[in-house]
Design a protein that fits this description.
- Helix content is 37%, strand content 21%.
- By secondary structure, the protein is α+β, with helices and mostly antiparallel strands.
- The strands form six sheets. A seven-stranded antiparallel beta sheet has the order 22-21-19-20-18-17-23. Strands 7-8-9-10-11 form a five-stranded antiparallel beta sheet, with helices on one face. A four-stranded antiparallel beta sheet has the order 3-4-5-6.
- α6 crosses α7 (243-261).
Length: 595
């Protein structure tokens, strides 16, 4: 994924002026002419309007959440409180059954204006406007009359809270101008190129920053997108570009604005490691993701993107306990392994003690009583060495002492050789479980990993509880060549794929020497083309702990060459006949059939 970065921090797509332009255009096309049939306030900072017109019924969600302001159309209804809040009751009084005359966006501000016509208590025709300001922590829903006087708002903002603008009944409504940014819609419609050049290229700062600090509605990401469309270095100082480059930037700006104002939206969600990473409402050259999904509408994009993000967050929260267990065990095991490695290093002196003992048996007659050392020829290297002696002991007794040290270190070495291998294997196993937790996208994936940890003894099953039903299944991909490829999500699935599902001549792939998934390619008795080998290797690279690297080394062989040692941990296998290749992690060419 090509992500925009500023001083090491990754910038995510914001609900910016272009996103709001997309949803405003969509709502205008579908809702203008309709009547507001119902008004509900399911959350303290959210409204749900039900609108009916000749084409059907629509539900419009207006959220002024400080953390995630959103506007989108949905088919889902939401449960409302038994007693409607005051703001909701006020809106029902004024605009329920009102007709939507227009839906607009001032400039490229993050503001939607719903213009409504209704009859007052006297039967006179009146006009009101419902404004939704999607401005982060300053988000609000404001209801104003024809004179732009505030009737009421979802959030009351007094002068004690904001010195820029009070949002209270009876106060005049206006859009705060605190940053002196230019209106890009006005620049586009008037063709004021001089103002554009002066605003964007008149500051000694990176070009992308000059864009989003000069133009309303541009987020850092959209500023980066504009620079890319113009073919200019976003990080280069805005003062350093030539006249021709400035003209390229201006042309790119006009084309981008034309796309937005003419409604040429291409709502797309970009995925990374199977998770939604970014989205774009316009055609984007900025994001290079391993997967992407084009949505039919901006509403679908916003619903899907944030619902999937919420799911990932929820899974992350639900996996927190499992992650803590695995991480604690991993840290403890790594400490044990480091200690054992240090002890192993200490045993390297054992051969020196053996040689001392042998040389003392050979040349000990030359040592005199009370000598502290003996120089002797080491017949293994033909070099003279000095052997330290205990002056209180004879040469034979010194030799016996050295042989005793040798025997002790030799026994320690033999014991540690087996123990360090076991501990190292446990580290690899725990890392593989951690990798499986990173891959988990559903609760049933976590269920199977938990059962694996119970089986491995890292978690104790609570008394009386039964083994949970496993419904998680491996990933199933189809290559462009028509070959079915399967990827294990955890060690249980890896074992099942390799030793129960695969047949002898199916192909087996795995990242070399690191935790990762087993990948099985069903050959159906056919010879695989080179492209199928590469696709399967990409899957093994992508679903490994090295997925962030540009290249990963992959081992592959026929399934019949893969063996499972007795009493080994889940997912652990050995093989002695294999081939290897170095491959990237781009699996965008593979179709995911099920997960």
């Amino acid at each position: 994924m090509a992500l925009y970065k500023e001083k090491g921090a990754t910038k995510k797509v914001a609900f910016d002026g272009f996103t709001l332009c997309g949803i405003t255009t969509e709502c205008k096309n579908l809702l203008v002419g309709g009547r507001i049939a119902k008004i509900a306030q399911p959350e303290k900072d959210e409204l749900l309007l039900t609108i009916k017109n000749v084409t059907g019924q629509f539900r419009l969600v207006l959220s002024a959440s400080a953390s995630l302001p959103l506007i989108y159309l949905t088919e889902e209804n939401k449960k409302s409180p038994l007693t409607a809040p005051n703001f909701c009751m006020l809106l029902r009084k004024h605009i329920q059954n009102g007709k939507i005359l227009d839906i607009t966006q001032p400039g490229l501000e993050r503001i939607m204006q719903i213009h409504i016509e209704h009859l007052d208590e006297m039967g006179d025709l009146c006009h009101k406007t419902l404004l939704i300001e999607a401005m982060g922590k300053h988000s609000n829903i404001i209801f104003v009359d024809e004179d732009q006087t505030i009737i009421d708002s979802l959030k009351h903002i007094s002068g004690l809270v904001s010195s820029v603008r009070e949002v209270l009944p009876g106060k005049p409504y206006f859009i705060p101008q605190t940053t002196n940014k230019l209106d890009p819609v006005n620049l586009y419609e008037t063709g004021n190129t001089d103002a554009f050049y002066q605003a964007v290229f008149g500051k000694a700062e990176p070009l992308y920053k000059a864009v989003y600090t000069a133009l309303t509605g541009f987020s850092p990401i959209m500023a980066q997108e504009l620079c890319l469309r113009a073919g200019l270095d976003a990080d280069q100082s805005a003062l350093t570009f030539s006249q021709a480059q400035q003209e390229d930037m201006q042309n790119a700006f006009f084309h981008m604005m034309e796309d937005a104002l003419e409604g040429r939206f291409e709502p797309t969600i970009f995925y990374e490691n199977g998770k939604p990473a970014e989205y774009a409402v316009l055609s984007s050259k900025l994001f290079a993701a391993d997967q992407k999904r084009t949505c039919e509408s901006v509403s679908e994009l916003l619903r899907s993107y944030y619902a999937e993000k919420e799911t990932i967050t929820r899974i992350r929260q639900k996996s927190a306990d499992l992650r803590r267990i695995v991480q604690t065990a991993l840290e403890r095991t790594v400490k044990k392994y480091d200690l054992q490695c240090q002890q192993m290093k200490d045993t390297e002196k054992r051969e020196k003690y053996r040689i001392y003992g042998e040389l003392l048996h050979t040349y000990g007659y030359e040592a005199k009583q009370g000598d502290k050392s003996l120089k002797a020829l080491n017949y293994y290297t033909n070099e003279e060495i000095t052997i330290p002696l205990d002056p209180q002991l004879t040469a034979a007794e010194n030799a016996k002492k050295y042989f005793a040290r040798y025997d002790k270190l030799k026994r320690t070495y033999e014991t540690l050789s087996e123990l360090t291998k076991e501990v190292h294997d446990e580290i690899l196993y725990l890392q593989s479980v951690s990798n499986a937790l990173d891959m988990a996208l559903k609760e049933e994936d976590l269920t199977e990993i938990k059962e694996e940890l119970i089986s491995a003894g890292y978690i104790k099953r609570k008394g009386g509880t039964k083994k949970e039903k496993i419904t998680s299944k491996p990933y199933h991909y189809l290559s462009p060549d028509g070959f079915h490829m399967y990827v294990g999500k955890n060690n249980f699935q890896n074992d099942a794929l390799t030793f129960q599902f695969a047949t002898g001549n199916d192909m087996w792939f795995h990242a070399k020497g690191i935790p990762g998934s087993h990948v099985i390619v069903k050959t159906e008795g056919k010879d695989l083309p080179d492209s199928a080998y590469e696709d399967a290797a990409r899957l093994a690279a992508y679903y490994s702990s090295a997925r962030e690297q540009s290249k990963v080394e992959i081992d592959y062989t026929r399934k019949k060459e893969v063996k499972k040692p007795p009493a080994s941990k889940p997912g652990f296998v050995i093989y002695h006949t294999n081939y290897s290749m170095v491959i990237d992690t781009d699996i965008s060419g593979l179709e995911l059939l099920s997960n």
